[in-house]
Amino acid sequence: MSDAAAENPPQSPPLDAIRRRRRWLIAFAGLALATIASVAAVQLLTGDEKAAQRDRALDDTARPVVLERVDLEPRRGTSRRGLAELVRRDGRTYLRMIAAGLARNIGDEVYQASLTGKGESRVLGSRTVDSKGIFLGQTEMTSKELHAFRRIELRIVGSGTEGSGRLILRGKIPG
User: The whole model's pTM is what?
Assistant: First the structure.
């Protein structure tokens, strides 16, 4: 054998094919990694702006501004409690009420929220309580409309009757 042949032995075809496949695999892996990195960078740059817009929208709806608050006191020494708040959310004003510790409705009875005083009354709505004895209600109302009355009341009434029934909670509207 000659010295030249001993220094550079001929390469077998399968070894060349394996090396070629390895180079192609490395090239494709590099290309895939570069593509993933560029997509991730675009998402990070544009995603922050979209997330900020979404957070601002959630802040507007999730955090109403409380304008006025009225504590609703129980009648006849019970442990029931309630709260009415005039809130501004999404550019609109609402009166919302929550009461806890209420007895479950029996038969056709419902809890009825109303505004009373100054010779008038206005029924805001009637609802049943949930299994935990909680009343939740909300209606659109301005501060001027609220202050046309003296009290906020929650009564338990028979279905279809308005303004009568047993008084459960009452709160005095300030002003």
Answer: 0.61
Q: Give the number of other CB atoms < 10 A from CB of residue 82.
A: 24
For 81, other C-beta atoms within 10 Å of its C-beta total 15
CA distance 175 to 169: 20
Interval 154-168: pLDDT, tens: 999 986 666 578 889
Q: Is the pLDDT of residue 148 over 80?
A: yes
Do residues 141 and 123 touch, judged by C-beta distance below 8 A? Answer: no
Three-class HEC string of the chain = CCHHHHHCCCCCHHHHHHHHHHHHHHHHHHHHHHHHHHHHHHHHHHHHHHHHHHHHHHHHHHCCEEEEEEEEEECCCCCCEEEEEEEEECCEEEEEEEEECCCCCCCCEEEEEEEEECCEEEEEEEECCCCCCCEEEEEECCHHHHCCCCEEEEEEEECCCCCCCEEEEEEECCC
